Automatic annotation (TrEMBL):
Entry GO terms, CC: cytosol
CDD domains for the chain: OAT_like
Coiled-coil boundaries: none
Protein name per the record: Aspartate aminotransferase family protein
Pfam families assigned: Aminotran_3
PROSITE patterns: AA_TRANSFER_CLASS_3
Annotated family: Belongs to the class-III pyridoxal-phosphate-dependent aminotransferase family.
Lineage start: Bacteria, Bacillati, Actinomycetota, Actinomycetes, Kitasatosporales
Keywords: Aminotransferase, Pyridoxal phosphate, Transferase
InterPro entries: Aminotrans_3 (IPR005814), Aminotrans_3_PPA_site (IPR049704), PyrdxlP-dep_Trfase (IPR015424), PyrdxlP-dep_Trfase_major (IPR015421), PyrdxlP-dep_Trfase_small (IPR015422)
Organism, scientific name: Streptomyces nigrescens
Cofactor(s) the protein needs: pyridoxal 5'-phosphate
MF terms (GO), sorted A to Z: pyridoxal phosphate binding; transaminase activity
Record carries keyword Transferase: yes
Length: 453
Protein backbone atom coordinates (compact mmCIF):
# COMPACT_ATOMS: atom_id res chain seq x y z
CA UNK A 1 0.00 0.00 0.00
CA UNK A 2 3.00 2.31 -0.23
CA UNK A 3 3.77 4.30 -3.36
CA UNK A 4 6.75 3.09 -5.30
CA UNK A 5 9.37 5.32 -6.85
CA UNK A 6 8.07 4.21 -10.24
CA UNK A 7 4.91 6.19 -9.45
CA UNK A 8 7.03 9.36 -9.50
CA UNK A 9 5.91 11.88 -12.10
CA UNK A 10 7.78 15.15 -11.57
CA UNK A 11 6.23 16.76 -14.67
CA UNK A 12 2.73 16.19 -13.29
CA UNK A 13 3.86 17.65 -9.96
CA UNK A 14 5.24 20.74 -11.68
CA UNK A 15 1.92 21.23 -13.50
CA UNK A 16 -0.04 20.93 -10.24
CA UNK A 17 2.22 23.50 -8.62
CA UNK A 18 1.97 25.93 -11.55
CA UNK A 19 -1.84 25.69 -11.47
CA UNK A 20 -1.82 26.31 -7.72
CA UNK A 21 0.38 29.38 -8.06
CA UNK A 22 -1.89 30.77 -10.79
CA UNK A 23 -5.10 31.06 -8.76
CA UNK A 24 -4.97 29.60 -5.25
CA UNK A 25 -4.67 32.17 -2.45
CA UNK A 26 -3.21 30.41 0.60
CA UNK A 27 -4.04 30.93 4.27
CA UNK A 28 -1.56 32.56 6.72
CA UNK A 29 0.92 33.22 3.90
CA UNK A 30 2.67 35.92 1.94
CA UNK A 31 1.56 34.65 -1.46
CA UNK A 32 4.83 35.46 -3.21
CA UNK A 33 7.01 33.74 -0.61
CA UNK A 34 5.51 30.26 -0.49
CA UNK A 35 6.36 27.05 -2.32
CA UNK A 36 3.53 24.56 -1.71
CA UNK A 37 4.46 20.90 -2.10
CA UNK A 38 2.31 19.16 -4.75
CA UNK A 39 0.68 16.07 -3.25
CA UNK A 40 -0.01 12.95 -5.29
CA UNK A 41 -1.73 10.75 -2.70
CA UNK A 42 -2.08 9.58 0.89
CA UNK A 43 -2.90 6.46 2.85
CA UNK A 44 -2.94 5.66 6.55
CA UNK A 45 -0.03 7.43 8.28
CA UNK A 46 1.66 8.52 5.04
CA UNK A 47 1.29 10.92 2.12
CA UNK A 48 3.53 11.36 -0.92
CA UNK A 49 4.55 13.84 -3.55
CA UNK A 50 5.09 13.51 -7.32
CA UNK A 51 8.86 13.10 -6.98
CA UNK A 52 8.63 9.70 -5.28
CA UNK A 53 9.10 11.07 -1.75
CA UNK A 54 6.90 9.52 0.91
CA UNK A 55 6.35 11.30 4.23
CA UNK A 56 5.32 9.83 7.55
CA UNK A 57 2.66 12.31 8.66
CA UNK A 58 3.59 13.34 12.23
CA UNK A 59 1.31 16.39 11.87
CA UNK A 60 -1.95 14.62 10.96
CA UNK A 61 -2.25 17.57 8.55
CA UNK A 62 -3.64 20.24 10.88
CA UNK A 63 -3.98 17.67 13.67
CA UNK A 64 -7.19 16.34 12.14
CA UNK A 65 -6.60 12.99 10.40
CA UNK A 66 -7.11 11.02 13.60
CA UNK A 67 -8.22 7.92 11.66
CA UNK A 68 -5.39 8.30 9.12
CA UNK A 69 -5.65 9.05 5.43
CA UNK A 70 -8.21 7.28 3.16
CA UNK A 71 -9.74 4.95 5.73
CA UNK A 72 -11.75 2.54 3.52
CA UNK A 73 -14.87 2.51 5.72
CA UNK A 74 -15.07 6.30 5.74
CA UNK A 75 -14.42 6.59 2.00
CA UNK A 76 -17.17 4.02 1.33
CA UNK A 77 -19.64 5.82 3.61
CA UNK A 78 -19.11 9.10 1.73
CA UNK A 79 -19.56 7.33 -1.61
CA UNK A 80 -22.75 5.61 -0.44
CA UNK A 81 -24.21 8.82 0.96
CA UNK A 82 -23.32 10.70 -2.23
CA UNK A 83 -25.30 8.17 -4.24
CA UNK A 84 -28.26 8.53 -1.84
CA UNK A 85 -28.58 12.20 -0.84
CA UNK A 86 -25.80 14.76 -1.33
CA UNK A 87 -27.39 17.79 0.27
CA UNK A 88 -30.47 18.88 2.17
CA UNK A 89 -31.20 22.04 4.18
CA UNK A 90 -30.53 21.94 7.94
CA UNK A 91 -34.25 22.24 8.77
CA UNK A 92 -35.12 18.70 7.66
CA UNK A 93 -34.78 15.52 9.71
CA UNK A 94 -32.31 13.15 8.03
CA UNK A 95 -31.21 9.69 9.20
CA UNK A 96 -27.49 10.28 8.82
CA UNK A 97 -27.55 13.64 10.69
CA UNK A 98 -29.59 12.18 13.56
CA UNK A 99 -27.17 9.26 13.84
CA UNK A 100 -24.10 11.52 13.82
CA UNK A 101 -25.66 13.66 16.58
CA UNK A 102 -26.53 10.56 18.62
CA UNK A 103 -23.00 9.17 18.35
CA UNK A 104 -21.42 12.51 19.35
CA UNK A 105 -23.85 12.94 22.28
CA UNK A 106 -23.13 9.39 23.42
CA UNK A 107 -19.40 10.18 23.60
CA UNK A 108 -19.42 13.68 25.11
CA UNK A 109 -19.36 13.87 28.93
CA UNK A 110 -22.36 14.56 31.18
CA UNK A 111 -25.58 16.01 29.78
CA UNK A 112 -24.10 17.51 26.60
CA UNK A 113 -26.81 15.81 24.60
CA UNK A 114 -27.89 18.33 21.95
CA UNK A 115 -25.60 18.83 18.95
CA UNK A 116 -25.45 21.96 16.76
CA UNK A 117 -23.46 21.14 13.63
CA UNK A 118 -21.12 23.58 11.89
CA UNK A 119 -18.59 23.28 9.06
CA UNK A 120 -15.51 23.54 11.24
CA UNK A 121 -13.95 24.61 14.51
CA UNK A 122 -14.09 28.40 14.31
CA UNK A 123 -17.82 28.37 13.54
CA UNK A 124 -18.34 26.07 16.50
CA UNK A 125 -16.54 28.61 18.73
CA UNK A 126 -18.57 31.51 17.27
CA UNK A 127 -21.81 29.71 18.01
CA UNK A 128 -20.79 28.55 21.47
CA UNK A 129 -20.01 32.16 22.41
CA UNK A 130 -23.33 33.36 20.97
CA UNK A 131 -25.21 30.68 22.93
CA UNK A 132 -23.39 31.67 26.14
CA UNK A 133 -24.14 35.37 25.63
CA UNK A 134 -27.84 34.76 24.95
CA UNK A 135 -28.13 32.26 27.80
CA UNK A 136 -26.57 34.61 30.38
CA UNK A 137 -27.56 37.99 28.94
CA UNK A 138 -23.90 39.01 29.48
CA UNK A 139 -21.30 40.07 26.94
CA UNK A 140 -17.69 39.47 28.03
CA UNK A 141 -15.78 36.28 27.30
CA UNK A 142 -12.53 35.29 29.03
CA UNK A 143 -9.94 33.26 27.13
CA UNK A 144 -6.34 32.28 27.70
CA UNK A 145 -3.11 33.68 26.33
CA UNK A 146 -1.40 30.75 24.62
CA UNK A 147 -4.53 29.50 22.89
CA UNK A 148 -5.98 29.04 19.42
CA UNK A 149 -9.72 29.13 18.76
CA UNK A 150 -10.03 29.81 15.01
CA UNK A 151 -9.74 32.52 12.37
CA UNK A 152 -13.26 34.00 12.17
CA UNK A 153 -14.20 37.31 13.83
CA UNK A 154 -14.82 36.34 17.46
CA UNK A 155 -12.66 33.20 17.36
CA UNK A 156 -9.55 35.14 16.30
CA UNK A 157 -10.17 37.73 19.03
CA UNK A 158 -10.36 34.91 21.56
CA UNK A 159 -7.13 33.38 20.25
CA UNK A 160 -4.08 34.09 22.37
CA UNK A 161 -1.33 33.90 19.76
CA UNK A 162 0.17 36.49 17.39
CA UNK A 163 -2.20 35.60 14.58
CA UNK A 164 -4.75 37.66 16.52
CA UNK A 165 -2.79 40.90 16.21
CA UNK A 166 -3.55 41.96 12.60
CA UNK A 167 -7.30 41.25 12.78
CA UNK A 168 -8.02 42.03 16.43
CA UNK A 169 -10.97 44.43 16.54
CA UNK A 170 -10.65 44.76 20.33
CA UNK A 171 -14.41 45.20 20.25
CA UNK A 172 -15.73 41.76 20.94
CA UNK A 173 -15.70 41.91 24.77
CA UNK A 174 -12.80 39.46 24.91
CA UNK A 175 -10.51 39.48 27.96
CA UNK A 176 -7.34 37.37 28.08
CA UNK A 177 -5.86 35.75 31.16
CA UNK A 178 -2.95 33.38 31.87
CA UNK A 179 -3.63 29.67 32.06
CA UNK A 180 -1.33 27.23 33.88
CA UNK A 181 1.99 26.31 32.23
CA UNK A 182 4.64 25.36 34.76
CA UNK A 183 7.62 25.22 32.37
CA UNK A 184 7.15 28.91 31.53
CA UNK A 185 5.12 29.90 34.57
CA UNK A 186 3.51 33.35 34.53
CA UNK A 187 3.23 32.97 38.31
CA UNK A 188 6.83 32.06 39.23
CA UNK A 189 5.54 28.72 40.49
CA UNK A 190 7.91 25.84 41.14
CA UNK A 191 5.46 22.94 41.45
CA UNK A 192 2.33 21.82 39.61
CA UNK A 193 0.33 22.41 42.81
CA UNK A 194 1.56 26.02 43.08
CA UNK A 195 0.92 26.62 39.38
CA UNK A 196 -2.62 25.31 39.70
CA UNK A 197 -3.40 27.31 42.84
CA UNK A 198 -1.91 30.55 41.48
CA UNK A 199 -3.53 30.21 38.04
CA UNK A 200 -6.93 29.77 39.70
CA UNK A 201 -6.32 32.77 42.01
CA UNK A 202 -5.31 34.86 38.97
CA UNK A 203 -8.51 33.87 37.17
CA UNK A 204 -10.59 34.73 40.25
CA UNK A 205 -8.94 38.14 40.42
CA UNK A 206 -9.46 38.78 36.70
CA UNK A 207 -13.14 37.99 37.16
CA UNK A 208 -13.42 40.22 40.22
CA UNK A 209 -11.86 43.18 38.38
CA UNK A 210 -13.90 42.63 35.18
CA UNK A 211 -17.14 42.22 37.11
CA UNK A 212 -18.56 38.70 37.35
CA UNK A 213 -22.05 39.90 36.37
CA UNK A 214 -20.66 41.07 32.98
CA UNK A 215 -18.95 37.77 32.05
CA UNK A 216 -20.89 35.36 29.82
CA UNK A 217 -18.28 32.65 29.40
CA UNK A 218 -14.80 31.33 30.01
CA UNK A 219 -13.42 29.39 27.05
CA UNK A 220 -10.41 27.10 27.36
CA UNK A 221 -8.88 24.39 25.25
CA UNK A 222 -8.99 21.36 27.57
CA UNK A 223 -5.36 20.73 26.60
CA UNK A 224 -4.14 23.80 24.66
CA UNK A 225 -2.91 22.41 21.34
CA UNK A 226 -1.42 24.79 18.78
CA UNK A 227 0.00 26.92 21.60
CA UNK A 228 2.12 24.06 22.95
CA UNK A 229 0.21 21.00 24.24
CA UNK A 230 0.20 22.15 27.84
CA UNK A 231 -1.52 19.45 29.88
CA UNK A 232 -3.15 21.35 32.76
CA UNK A 233 -2.25 20.41 36.34
CA UNK A 234 -4.65 18.08 38.15
CA UNK A 235 -7.40 20.16 39.69
CA UNK A 236 -7.18 23.20 37.39
CA UNK A 237 -10.18 22.47 35.17
CA UNK A 238 -12.26 21.33 38.15
CA UNK A 239 -11.29 24.63 39.78
CA UNK A 240 -12.45 26.61 36.74
CA UNK A 241 -15.70 24.60 36.73
CA UNK A 242 -16.29 25.59 40.37
CA UNK A 243 -15.52 29.27 39.67
CA UNK A 244 -17.94 29.29 36.71
CA UNK A 245 -20.68 27.70 38.83
CA UNK A 246 -20.19 30.23 41.62
CA UNK A 247 -20.49 33.23 39.24
CA UNK A 248 -23.10 31.89 36.80
CA UNK A 249 -20.51 31.90 34.00
CA UNK A 250 -20.83 29.44 31.10
CA UNK A 251 -17.81 27.11 30.87
CA UNK A 252 -16.85 26.33 27.26
CA UNK A 253 -14.25 23.65 26.58
CA UNK A 254 -12.78 23.82 23.08
CA UNK A 255 -12.01 20.22 22.04
CA UNK A 256 -11.60 20.98 18.33
CA UNK A 257 -8.02 19.64 18.43
CA UNK A 258 -7.99 17.53 21.62
CA UNK A 259 -11.24 15.64 20.97
CA UNK A 260 -12.02 12.34 19.28
CA UNK A 261 -9.17 10.16 20.44
CA UNK A 262 -6.22 12.55 20.22
CA UNK A 263 -5.40 12.34 23.95
CA UNK A 264 -6.19 8.62 24.27
CA UNK A 265 -9.77 9.25 25.40
CA UNK A 266 -12.75 10.25 23.28
CA UNK A 267 -12.45 13.73 24.83
CA UNK A 268 -9.61 15.30 26.80
CA UNK A 269 -12.18 16.33 29.43
CA UNK A 270 -12.47 12.62 30.28
CA UNK A 271 -8.93 12.73 31.75
CA UNK A 272 -10.01 15.38 34.25
CA UNK A 273 -13.58 14.28 35.06
CA UNK A 274 -14.90 17.74 34.12
CA UNK A 275 -18.09 18.49 32.18
CA UNK A 276 -18.37 21.92 30.54
CA UNK A 277 -21.67 23.63 29.63
CA UNK A 278 -20.68 23.77 25.96
CA UNK A 279 -18.07 21.68 24.15
CA UNK A 280 -16.80 22.60 20.69
CA UNK A 281 -15.50 19.92 18.32
CA UNK A 282 -14.40 19.50 14.67
CA UNK A 283 -11.28 17.88 13.13
CA UNK A 284 -11.24 14.30 14.53
CA UNK A 285 -15.04 13.91 14.49
CA UNK A 286 -14.62 12.71 10.89
CA UNK A 287 -10.88 13.29 10.43
CA UNK A 288 -11.69 16.21 8.15
CA UNK A 289 -12.71 14.01 5.21
CA UNK A 290 -15.64 16.43 4.70
CA UNK A 291 -15.72 19.74 6.64
CA UNK A 292 -17.60 19.29 9.93
CA UNK A 293 -17.63 20.74 13.42
CA UNK A 294 -20.16 21.44 16.11
CA UNK A 295 -21.19 22.42 19.61
CA UNK A 296 -22.39 19.89 22.18
CA UNK A 297 -24.91 21.69 24.40
CA UNK A 298 -25.96 21.05 28.01
CA UNK A 299 -29.61 20.45 28.87
CA UNK A 300 -29.80 23.78 30.69
CA UNK A 301 -28.50 25.85 27.78
CA UNK A 302 -30.55 23.87 25.27
CA UNK A 303 -33.65 24.73 27.36
CA UNK A 304 -32.97 28.47 26.82
CA UNK A 305 -33.75 27.90 23.17
CA UNK A 306 -36.72 25.57 23.65
CA UNK A 307 -39.47 28.16 23.25
CA UNK A 308 -37.29 30.94 21.85
CA UNK A 309 -35.47 30.63 18.53
CA UNK A 310 -31.72 30.20 18.44
CA UNK A 311 -30.55 33.00 16.13
CA UNK A 312 -27.87 31.22 14.13
CA UNK A 313 -27.50 28.79 11.26
CA UNK A 314 -25.47 27.78 8.27
CA UNK A 315 -26.56 26.57 4.84
CA UNK A 316 -24.42 23.46 5.21
CA UNK A 317 -25.02 22.74 8.91
CA UNK A 318 -25.18 18.97 9.39
CA UNK A 319 -24.27 18.32 5.76
CA UNK A 320 -25.19 14.72 4.79
CA UNK A 321 -21.76 13.86 3.36
CA UNK A 322 -20.05 15.27 6.46
CA UNK A 323 -22.42 13.44 8.80
CA UNK A 324 -22.04 10.15 6.91
CA UNK A 325 -18.28 10.41 7.23
CA UNK A 326 -18.61 11.23 10.96
CA UNK A 327 -20.83 8.19 11.60
CA UNK A 328 -18.39 5.93 9.75
CA UNK A 329 -15.40 7.49 11.55
CA UNK A 330 -16.86 7.14 15.04
CA UNK A 331 -18.00 3.58 14.34
CA UNK A 332 -14.65 2.55 12.85
CA UNK A 333 -12.78 4.12 15.77
CA UNK A 334 -14.89 2.06 18.19
CA UNK A 335 -14.73 -1.19 16.18
CA UNK A 336 -10.98 -0.98 15.63
CA UNK A 337 -9.96 0.20 19.10
CA UNK A 338 -8.39 3.36 17.68
CA UNK A 339 -8.79 5.50 20.82
CA UNK A 340 -7.21 2.70 22.87
CA UNK A 341 -4.39 2.52 20.31
CA UNK A 342 -3.69 6.24 20.74
CA UNK A 343 -3.51 5.80 24.53
CA UNK A 344 -1.28 2.71 24.26
CA UNK A 345 1.18 4.08 21.67
CA UNK A 346 1.47 7.33 23.62
CA UNK A 347 2.13 5.70 26.95
CA UNK A 348 4.26 2.79 25.84
CA UNK A 349 6.13 4.09 22.77
CA UNK A 350 6.04 7.85 22.12
CA UNK A 351 6.26 9.22 25.67
CA UNK A 352 9.24 7.07 26.78
CA UNK A 353 11.07 7.58 23.45
CA UNK A 354 10.65 11.38 23.58
CA UNK A 355 11.95 11.51 27.16
CA UNK A 356 14.97 9.49 26.16
CA UNK A 357 15.53 11.75 23.12
CA UNK A 358 15.27 14.82 25.38
CA UNK A 359 18.02 13.46 27.62
CA UNK A 360 20.43 13.20 24.68
CA UNK A 361 19.67 16.47 22.83
CA UNK A 362 20.73 19.82 24.29
CA UNK A 363 17.97 21.56 22.28
CA UNK A 364 15.07 19.71 23.92
CA UNK A 365 13.97 21.66 27.00
CA UNK A 366 10.75 19.87 27.86
CA UNK A 367 8.63 16.96 26.67
CA UNK A 368 4.92 17.07 27.46
CA UNK A 369 1.74 15.42 26.25
CA UNK A 370 -0.45 12.35 26.32
CA UNK A 371 -2.00 9.97 23.80
CA UNK A 372 -0.80 10.98 20.32
CA UNK A 373 -0.57 14.63 21.39
CA UNK A 374 3.02 15.59 22.32
CA UNK A 375 5.23 18.67 22.18
CA UNK A 376 8.98 19.19 22.36
CA UNK A 377 9.83 22.67 23.66
CA UNK A 378 13.12 23.51 21.93
CA UNK A 379 15.59 25.77 23.73
CA UNK A 380 18.95 27.48 23.27
CA UNK A 381 19.84 26.57 26.83
CA UNK A 382 18.27 23.95 29.06
CA UNK A 383 19.18 25.88 32.23
CA UNK A 384 17.70 29.26 31.28
CA UNK A 385 14.95 27.71 29.11
CA UNK A 386 15.52 30.45 26.54
CA UNK A 387 13.44 29.38 23.50
CA UNK A 388 15.42 28.21 20.45
CA UNK A 389 13.83 31.10 18.48
CA UNK A 390 12.24 34.29 19.84
CA UNK A 391 8.44 34.51 20.23
CA UNK A 392 6.76 34.97 16.82
CA UNK A 393 10.11 34.89 14.96
CA UNK A 394 10.16 34.94 11.18
CA UNK A 395 12.79 35.02 8.44
CA UNK A 396 16.41 34.77 9.58
CA UNK A 397 15.42 34.82 13.25
CA UNK A 398 13.44 31.63 12.67
CA UNK A 399 16.25 29.84 10.79
CA UNK A 400 16.95 27.24 13.53
CA UNK A 401 13.37 25.96 13.37
CA UNK A 402 13.30 26.13 9.56
CA UNK A 403 16.53 24.08 9.42
CA UNK A 404 15.08 21.55 11.84
CA UNK A 405 11.87 21.21 9.77
CA UNK A 406 13.89 20.77 6.57
CA UNK A 407 15.97 18.04 8.24
CA UNK A 408 12.77 16.20 9.24
CA UNK A 409 11.49 16.30 5.66
CA UNK A 410 14.82 15.03 4.30
CA UNK A 411 14.39 12.11 6.69
CA UNK A 412 10.91 11.31 5.36
CA UNK A 413 9.06 12.84 8.31
CA UNK A 414 6.43 15.58 8.01
CA UNK A 415 6.60 17.54 11.29
CA UNK A 416 4.20 19.97 12.95
CA UNK A 417 6.27 23.04 13.82
CA UNK A 418 5.04 26.13 15.67
CA UNK A 419 7.39 28.82 17.00
CA UNK A 420 10.08 27.05 19.11
CA UNK A 421 8.16 23.78 19.30
CA UNK A 422 7.70 20.64 17.31
CA UNK A 423 4.61 18.59 18.03
CA UNK A 424 4.41 14.82 17.64
CA UNK A 425 0.81 14.37 16.56
CA UNK A 426 0.49 11.32 14.30
CA UNK A 427 -2.83 9.64 13.47
CA UNK A 428 -4.53 7.79 16.33
CA UNK A 429 -4.16 4.72 14.09
CA UNK A 430 -0.34 4.97 14.06
CA UNK A 431 1.33 1.59 14.54
CA UNK A 432 4.25 0.92 16.85
CA UNK A 433 6.56 0.41 13.85
CA UNK A 434 5.46 3.69 12.25
CA UNK A 435 5.85 5.58 15.52
CA UNK A 436 9.39 4.19 15.92
CA UNK A 437 10.27 5.09 12.32
CA UNK A 438 9.09 8.67 12.87
CA UNK A 439 10.82 8.98 16.24
CA UNK A 440 14.12 7.82 14.70
CA UNK A 441 13.82 10.48 11.97
CA UNK A 442 12.95 13.10 14.59
CA UNK A 443 15.95 12.07 16.70
CA UNK A 444 18.27 12.58 13.75
CA UNK A 445 16.70 15.90 12.68
CA UNK A 446 17.13 17.31 16.20
CA UNK A 447 20.88 17.47 15.63
CA UNK A 448 20.07 20.43 13.33
CA UNK A 449 18.40 22.16 16.31
CA UNK A 450 21.28 21.17 18.64
CA UNK A 451 23.64 23.15 16.39
CA UNK A 452 21.92 26.35 17.58
CA UNK A 453 22.21 25.72 21.33
N1 LIG B 1 -10.16 25.55 18.21
C1 LIG B 1 -9.04 24.82 18.32
C2 LIG B 1 -8.63 24.31 19.66
C3 LIG B 1 -8.26 24.53 17.18
O1 LIG B 1 -7.13 23.82 17.31
C4 LIG B 1 -8.70 25.01 15.92
C5 LIG B 1 -7.93 24.71 14.65
N2 LIG B 1 -6.60 24.44 14.78
C6 LIG B 1 -9.88 25.76 15.86
C7 LIG B 1 -10.59 25.98 17.01
C8 LIG B 1 -10.39 26.29 14.55
O2 LIG B 1 -10.87 25.26 13.76
P1 LIG B 1 -11.08 25.46 12.19
O3 LIG B 1 -9.73 25.70 11.60
O4 LIG B 1 -11.74 24.18 11.76
O5 LIG B 1 -11.99 26.63 12.01
Amino acid sequence: TTPSASAADPAAGAAVKAADRAHVFHSWSAQGLIDPLPIAGAEGSYFWDYDGNRYLDFSSQLVNTNIGHQHPKVVAAIQEQAAKLCTIAPGFAVDVRSEAARLVAERTPGDLDKIFFTNGGAEAVENAVRMARLHTGRAKVLSAYRSYHGATATAINLTGDPRRWPSDTASAGVIHFWGPFLYRSAFHAETEEQECERALAHLEQTIAFEGPQSIAAIILETVPGTAGIMVPPAGYLAGVREICDRHGIVFILDEVMAGFGRTGHWFAADHFGVTPDLLTFAKGVNSGYVPLGGVAISAEIAATFDQRPYPGGLTYSGHPLACASAVATMNAMAEEGIVENAADIGERVIGPALREIADRHPSVGEVRGLGVFWALDLVKNKETREPLVPYNASGAANAPMAEFAAACKRGGLWPFVNMNRTHVVPACTVTEAEAKEGLAALDEALTAADAHT
